[in-house]
């Protein structure tokens, strides 16, 4: 089981958040599916997922997506995914 806390931040304030939980074991191969599910729950577009984003999540237990990581324009400053241990 794993949990990911997703936060949408605008001007340093959380404007939306969700807690994503799965009973299965975490797999980096499925990270895009997790990201897509989280973005659907938050009703925001899915960012472009780069290998460096996955490495940051693996090494630091969080990853930050900025508006430049999205193909569409987004009305927020950051999308932050944090691994809840």
Keywords:
85 residues, alpha+beta, four-stranded antiparallel β-sheet, 2 helices, 4 strands, globular
Brief synopsis:
This protein has helices at residues 31-42, 51-60, and strands at residues 2-10, 13-22, 62-65, 78-84.
List the helices and strands and how they pair.
Layout: E1 2-10, E2 13-22, H1 31-42, H2 51-60, E3 62-65, E4 78-84
Antiparallel strand pairs: 1-2, 1-4, 3-4
Detailed description of the structure:
This protein has 85 residues and is an alpha+beta fold. It has one domain (2-84). Helices cover 26% and strands 35% of the residues. Strands 2-1-4-3 form a 4-stranded antiparallel β-sheet. The longest helix has 12 residues, at 31-42.
Biggest beta-sheet profile: 4 strands, antiparallel
Alpha-beta content class? alpha+beta
Query: Termini distance?
Result: 10 Å
Q: Element order, helices and strands?
A: EEHHEE
Unreliable parts: none
């Amino acid at each position: 089981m794993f949990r990911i806390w997703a936060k949408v931040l605008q001007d340093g304030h959380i404007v939306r958040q969700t807690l994503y939980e799965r009973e299965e074991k975490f797999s980096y191969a499925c990270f895009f599916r997790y990201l897509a599910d989280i973005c659907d729950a938050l009703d925001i577009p899915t960012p472009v997922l780069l290998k460096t984003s996955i490495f940051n999540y693996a090494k630091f237990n969080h990853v930050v997506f900025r508006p430049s990581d999205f193909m569409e324009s987004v009305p927020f400053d950051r999308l932050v995914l944090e691994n809840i241990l």
